[in-house]
Input
Amino acid sequence: MKTLEMKFLNQEEKLVTISLDNPVEPPDAEAIEAAMDTIISENAFFSSGGDLVSKKSARIVERNVFDIEF
Output
């Protein structure tokens, strides 16, 4: 399973992560940056440390899960 993680700083300069499952492949850096800018400008999400004020980073995370039967 792949996840897009967009990381922001809030007013208290604490890290806030917004994750989206099944991102489009290959990732479009310009579209991701534009979405992050929109999230900040529209004040779309609230965090316990206040509004999101700046972009920190974005990344694709892939997680593999293997069940162990016993």
About this structure: The chain has one helix and four strands. The mean pLDDT is 95.
